[in-house]
Specification:
This protein has about 160 residues and is mainly alpha-helical. The protein is built from 7 helices and 2 strands, in the order ααααββααα. It is globular and about 45 Å long.
């Protein structure tokens, strides 16, 4: 992975948010999937999770940050997203902490693509910042559920845009 690939993608998404959400510019979900896969945090390529049930994921890989309550449903039906929203710590001491919060792009019963877009673009911005200064530490501190959330959000956006 190129050193600034994550940051560049996050910047491009942020700069083009309005035109992407207005369907004037294509949303490149494949670029998001590539970044996720290149981080080597999840055991499988991100697209393989889209056909998995919540229970399969919960039993094999989840770090239990997501709310998985309909275990027989597909991961792509999941409404909970984990947004990576903050980084702090000491790079020189290999102490990096990521902070997360829950987002729901289906909160009022309708899909809100802005929420998923924010999950993708903002999470990538934070992850990219860590990748720039502490790439070896990132793999150990990044939540699998948060990374899966980025993939699920990108997948939902790909279908809706």
């Amino acid at each position: 992975m190129e050193k600034l690939e994550i940051v560049t993608l996050a910047d491009d998404l942020a700069a083009n948010q309005e035109s992407i959400l207005n369907k004037e510019t294509d949303f490149d979900a494949e670029a998001v999937y590539r970044v996720i896969d290149n981080l080597h945090v999840l055991h499988k390529p991100i697209k393989e999770y889209f056909g998995m049930t919540q229970e399969e994921y919960y039993d094999t890989e989840s770090d239990h940050k997501m709310t998985l309550i309909k275990l027989s449903e597909q991961l792509t039906d999941l409404h909970d997203r984990i947004l990576t929203n903050h980084v702090d710590g000491f790079v020189d001491k290999n102490e990096i902490n990521l902070t997360y919060n829950h987002e729901n792009p289906y909160e009022d019963g309708f899909y809100n693509d802005i929420v998923d877009f924010h999950v993708v673009s903002y999470s990538l911005k934070v992850i990219g910042a860590v990748e720039e200064v502490a790439p070896k530490t990132l793999q150990g501190v990044l939540s699998k559920d948060a990374l899966l959330s980025i993939g699920l959000a990108a997948h939902a956006l790909e279908k809706s845009l």
